[in-house]
Design goal:
The structure holds two protein chains of two kinds. Chain A is of the alpha/beta class. Chain A is built from eight helices and ten strands. Classes of the chains: A alpha/beta, B mainly alpha.
Chain lengths: 263, 283
């Protein structure tokens, strides 16, 4: 496995297709999807509804089996969910009966890390997301944005090979979402994590990604792969710049055609 | 094409709007003071009606004794130690029967809720058995187990086992899928997902199920004691009927009701204690 490391990308999705079968009909949700994420890369997948983007992420996470094709992490084929692929969902998935700190330490506890180390690690990642002051509180006392930051800390504390994010800011209000985007860029640069994020928000995808995939709908397949030629240092003013708007127009046009298929 | 002109002002009906109200608001809260007033009023009204009917002699005391007579009987039974004896006897039967049922139904319900395989294995049987009224088992249980404590406890056991199992299984099915998925991606094994995610997540609903079925077992113990017993609140009621002591029947009924209420409150307190994260409506 190690000898392949230089030839294999960090995460490789190879010819993944997914067919959903019900009694009456078959639906092809994903059609031979090929994509990859390199180490320390932040990649976004942007797609309209019907592009199967959530299905794709669930397959990568190992929560769903592909009908054909395979997913590889560092050359090792994915056969089920595991701690090497952390996942952050759109809806708040913190465990309501655990304190914020216990939530962040959850994965470490499952790994059998001792209590002292667990505490230290959890505190460290809470500091990273700027929430060390709420460590002892229960999640329901926190705002939506804070809860998602805890969810990110919980995923990071496990030190996954790759962090998968499924519309992580979709449930937040527009202002909080913009802050979270800057926050995620910052975290990503500080912790040197590989991130694969899916979203339907084109602006969000361009703002966050170093590289992005645009998915076609019905069936979901890769329609375009775009290198985002924007500086690494990004803040909200970037969204007003000409290069940004130009790129956005391109993607908007692509997705508009895809969305019309379902309209 | 015809264009539609607005009606002249005097021909227009005044726009109909909902009239403001407090009492008739649908699915909305009413002021706390009014809520208390209405709740207290409902009890006071019942008591007043009872007082009035007995004081005016509309119904003979043999059918409906006066509140004073019932209170007197309550004092007498309490003084003779009979009442406490009966309460303890009934309580022990409930605890034994319900406790055993909980011991079986909680793990079984968890398995059925968590695994479709267990669901398919047990659901046809349990789904059928639970529609057989437990009280109809009394003759069979007496035939099998005699007239001692065993058939009474068995009645409560089978009377609550099936419903509790189904309700615990439902509690598990309501655990959000994403909580389980996140646990997997944090490296949690399946047995630990059961223990560390499903069990705590289902706990508030499991306690609700226990509370409801505890009330059911409290009903069943009375049925068991009406048939063959020498102690217990059901026995007390049956005996009172035999000797035409209607006021003692009322004592029995009221005590049963109050204990039921107490158990309910106890479970609510337990839930608040064990599940402090559960948010209740109405702040």
């Amino acid at each position: 496995m190690i000898q392949y490391a230089d030839r294999w990308p960090h995460l490789a999705v190879r010819q993944v297709s997914k067919t959903f079968r019900s009694r009456r009909r078959e639906v092809l949700a994903l059609d031979a999807v090929d994509l990859h994420v390199d180490a320390n890369e932040l990649v976004c997948i942007v797609g309209a509804s019907g592009s199967g983007k959530s299905t794709l992420l669930r397959i990568i996470a190992g929560l769903l089996n592909a009908s054909s094709g395979a997913v590889y992490v560092d050359g090792l084929q994915v056969s089920g969910p595991g701690a090497d692929r952390g996942l952050v969902f759109q809806d708040y998935t913190l465990y309501p009966w655990l304190t914020v700190e216990q939530n962040v330490a959850f994965g470490l506890k499952m790994k059998g890390v001792d209590r002292q180390t667990r505490r230290e690690q959890a505190q460290h990642y809470l500091r990273v997301v700027g929430l060390e002051h709420v460590a002892g509180q229960l999640p329901h006392t926190l705002s939506g944005g804070m809860q998602q930051r805890v969810a990110i800390a919980r995923a990071l504390a496990n030190q996954p090979a790759i962090l998968l994010m499924d519309e992580p800011f979709g449930a937040l209000d527009a202002q909080t979402r913009a802050l979270m985007q800057e926050f995620l860029r910052k975290i990503w640069r500080e912790t040197a994590t590989s991130i694969l994020l899916i979203t339907h928000d084109i602006e969000e995808a361009i703002f966050l990604a170093g590289r992005l995939y645009v998915l076609a709908s019905n069936p979901g397949r890769v329609r375009a792969e775009i290198d985002v030629p924007l500086p690494a240092e990004r803040d909200f003013t970037l969204k007003r710049r000409t290069e940004f708007l130009h790129l956005k127009d391109q993607v908007v046009e692509m997705l508009r055609a895809e969305t019309l298929k379902n309209f | 094409m015809r264009t539609i002109q607005p009606l002249p002002l005097d021909e227009r009906a005044a726009p109909r709007m909902l009239r403001p109200t407090v009492f008739w608001r649908i699915r909305e809260d009413i002021p706390l003071s009014l809520a208390w007033l209405l709740s207290a009023g409902s009890l006071v009204l019942l008591l007043l009606a009872w007082l009035l009917v007995t004081a005016l002699g509309i119904v003979p005391p043999l059918f409906l004794p006066s509140p004073a007579a019932v209170l007197g009987a309550f004092g007498r039974l309490l003084g003779e130690g009979l009442l406490l004896n009966d309460v303890v006897a009934s309580m022990l039967r409930v605890l034994a029967g319900f406790g055993l049922a909980a011991l079986v139904s909680i793990p079984l319900g968890l398995l059925m809720g968590a695994f479709a395989s267990f669901h398919n294995l047990f659901n046809p049987t349990i789904g059928t058995l639970r529609y057989m009224p437990a009280s109809a088992f009394v003759p069979l249980l007496i035939l099998w187990l005699g007239i001692d404590e065993a058939p009474k406890i068995a009645l409560i056991f089978i009377g609550t086992l099936f419903f509790n199992t189904i309700m615990v299984a439902d509690a598990v099915k309501f655990v959000p899928r994403s909580l389980i998925d996140v646990a997997y991606t944090l490296g949690t094994s399946r047995p630990r997902v059961l223990r560390e995610v499903i069990w705590p997540a289902a706990m508030p609903a499991v306690l609700d199920a226990l509370r409801v079925n505890m009330a059911a077992s409290w009903n069943l113990v009375i049925i068991a004691e009406l048939v063959a017993a020498t102690s217990g609140l059901g026995y007390r009621i049956l005996r009172a009927q035999r000797f035409l002591r209607t006021e003692e029947i009322f004592v029995g009924l009221i005590v049963i009701g109050l204990i039921g209420l107490l158990i309910d409150l106890l479970f609510f307190a337990l839930q608040r204690r064990l599940c402090p994260w559960v948010q209740r409506g109405g702040e």
